[in-house]
Write a structure and sequence with these properties.
The chain contains ten helices and ten strands. It is α/β, with parallel strands linked by helices. Bound molecules: adenosine-5'-triphosphate and magnesium ion (MG).
Length: 235
Amino acid sequence: MLEVSDLGVRYGAIRAVHDVSLQAGKGELIAILGANGAGKSSTLKCIAGALKASAGTIRLDGQDVTSAKPEQMVRLGVAMVPETRDVFPDLTVSENLTLGSYIHRRNRADVESTRERMLGLFPRLRERARQAAGTLSGGEQQMLVIARALMSRPKLLLLDEPSLGLAPVVVDTIFEMIAELKRSGLTIVLVEQNAAKALSVADRAYVMRLGRIAAKGPAAEIAANTDLGALYLGG
Ligand SMILES: Nc1ncnc2c1ncn2[C@@H]1O[C@H](COP(=O)(O)OP(=O)(O)OP(=O)(O)O)[C@@H](O)[C@H]1O
Ligand SMILES: [Mg+2]
């Protein structure tokens, strides 16, 4: 479904990503691991159309989407949850969810039924549907941004560091939800520094180091490879 070939990203003179190639098949969950600054978020933003590739190609179901804009990518079924976890703080949980479907301009009943599904998937959000999003805990905000991304009914979900700054018990809840989404058939690209957690839900993993893919393989193999620990833990 997703095929990234020889991707490059530059910020002016800085080359942040070099020759990155990766694939995700339909229903697959791939993890991109790596230390701070390895180029994980740059790669993900590029796939989402939020950042221009300086080299390489991105294909979605065979279609070249290398130069597609973020709105086009959403229309094509790609949703991203950035690491910034930005909710609209003064709007309610329910209103935040509604905004997640605005690009599709679907009818009201359709938006409501999708929102209902999201509140079913995230009971914590249902209890807080009328609460201002800015007053949610960090973990609840993370659930909200994931649910908001899902409002566009994507076929490919890009998640950037969903565990960042959350307590271990909350991280467990978030990862149970990610596993649940995978079981529902969604294709997921998960960027994480929490390698152990990511590898517990991923089918395959790519380890990035200094903007390049340093290792790749089935999640179980990457998890068993102790030499890689130094790579993705930043050593
Ligand atoms: N807007 C920008 N302008 C200039 N350099 C940038 C910009 N964004 C990222 N970089 C640089 O590109 C490199 C890769 O950054 P990126 O955010 O992709 O890494 P990352 O793997 O997501 O790291 P982290 O785990 O800290 O989120 C870093 O060296 C970073 O300083
Ligand atoms: Mg990042």
